[in-house]
């Protein structure tokens, strides 16, 4: 017995030490980005391992017979704690599992698993003479198993509850319970478990996705796919500790549930075999200790603990390698923002990336039904909830007196939406609507990511900053206006995924124009910009005299006023549907300095003259354009100088190939085409690790 105990001790210590090394390697990148410390997650894990190791040593000096006397009160107490947990535990990722004890947080379900095994061993020993009897032998044990596992399942923690049933029935079978009693009850429970799993959308989606990948050869879960990439790239001896590529945010939960994949990548086939061999040693040594225990209680307790540890380990490995469907909680993310396309479309770009990374993720947009988000979001297939909020007008209007009431109602609506949806992460992309919605999500414990598209942050961003975990900015200048500079990330403004350029001659043909004449593209937004349209009309002869051709989007409000100016070299449009063709056709762009326009011209390297609108909140368009003009990435022309300077600035820019080339080079250098992917990956990591 002593040799077996020593074997288990050193086997456990070796696996624990190896785990610490791989956790340190797998968590370093995420720790730096999330906590500004390479060792943050490792330190937390080391503390827990140290505490566990200390308890293991202390408990080894306690005779296991003592657990018999505390079996009944312990199982009753943990049942009550599990019930209380459902009501008082914070909702994290849609589940109530954790109890915060100040220094440490615990999952009562982990304690419940051990106490249930202790109680089953006690009952089997106590009722050994009536184990064949269904009512007096099997039923009391079955009730405790169903009670504890059900309390765990409804947290929800379906996989843990189902595994607990499997391990408990294994102990009962070894203890002498009739096979037919176990078989019938397990079959009924499995059927009920399947029904429950299909009721919860997150588990249903995972099961269907898994079956589709197995039966029909469909796509496998992205997380599993990345895990297999990780395992496959390890080869025989691995890439070496600290050299994993997948741990650099490619594999969500790399330092947690999918740590086995990183182990395989860094230590290779040899490392995987070593770990599997370590668990097999633990299995055989545990069973041998169970056989040599002096009483039935000790035998069943040793067997149950051994089977529980090894089963959980091998189920984790099976999930990592795609042999079993992934488990976990619903990945729910809430987006709030709108009022204008500049606030909405960056959020949509991030949502599309998240759907690519996590097809099973549940996405909800919150906005106002009367604005652009109320029309666009439902058409894209995303869930949409409307709240009453509306911005405070800078002009005197009677509706401004309703603002406090609308704000209060919107906060209440947002709290209700968040309580029902239970998001893990909330992304605010600006506009008044994001205020109540993101505040509500923060109150409910969601991680908060803010997107600030403008050089000077809007009032909503400045108010929500205190609740945020990250603020993604598009301009370096923005950081100086934020109070919490440490959470800012210069990521760029997300752009739509289908943004791109095409053959210039083909693009010109789309608009009825011909090369090699240089082309000026004039934009004023979907509704139009009065001052730009007026200046264009007033200077149209001067622009024609430069020897250029013009694509002119007047906007819906002004099209009828200028449609008659359409000619062979001047193409007037109410709205341009194919912006990729418009960008590809032009040699120079003249437009407002909205955040979305800027993100697109930087991504495509479009030479631009930006005319900031003087009618926007906090003059943010001027700061946008000024920030770029200071880096010679655009030409800045103020709105009040349009009439007198338009022809000269266009002429000086579009006729100078050297100046155009400089603008292209400098604009492209500031581009952040990966912004949507980076933000989406951070959001997914929050969802996976919360």
Structure description:
The structure is a single chain. With 690 residues, the protein is α/β, with parallel strands linked by helices. Helices cover 57% and strands 8% of the residues. The chain contains 26 helices and 15 strands. The strands form three sheets. The chain has a seven-stranded parallel β-sheet, with helices on both faces. β1 (99-100) and β2 form a beta hairpin. The longest helix has 34 residues, at 2-35.
The order of strands across the largest sheet is 5-4-3-6-7-8-9
Percent range for helical residues? 55-70%
Ranges where pLDDT stays below 50 over 5 or more residues in a row are none
Question: Main β-sheet: number of strands, strand sense, barrel status?
Answer: 7 strands, parallel
Number of strands: 15
The class by helix and strand makeup works out as: alpha/beta
SS field, number of helical segments: 26
What is the strand content?
5-15%
Distance between the ends: 42 Å
Secondary structure elements and pairings:
Blueprint: H1 2-35, H2 40-59, H3 66-88, E1 99-100, E2 105-106, H4 108-126, H5 134-153, H6 158-175, H7 179-199, H8 201-215, H9 222-232, H10 259-292, H11 296-320, E3 332-336, H12 341-357, E4 362-367, H13 372-379, E5 383-386, H14 403-421, E6 425-428, H15 434-443, E7 447-452, H16 459-464, E8 470-473, E9 488-490, H17 504-510, E10 519-522, H18 530-538, H19 540-545, E11 549-553, H20 559-562, E12 570-573, H21 579-585, E13 588-591, H22 595-604, E14 608-610, H23 620-629, E15 635-636, H24 642-654, H25 657-669, H26 675-689
Parallel strand pairs: 3-4, 3-6, 4-5, 6-7, 7-8, 8-9, 10-11, 10-13, 11-12, 13-14, 14-15
Antiparallel strand pairs: 1-2
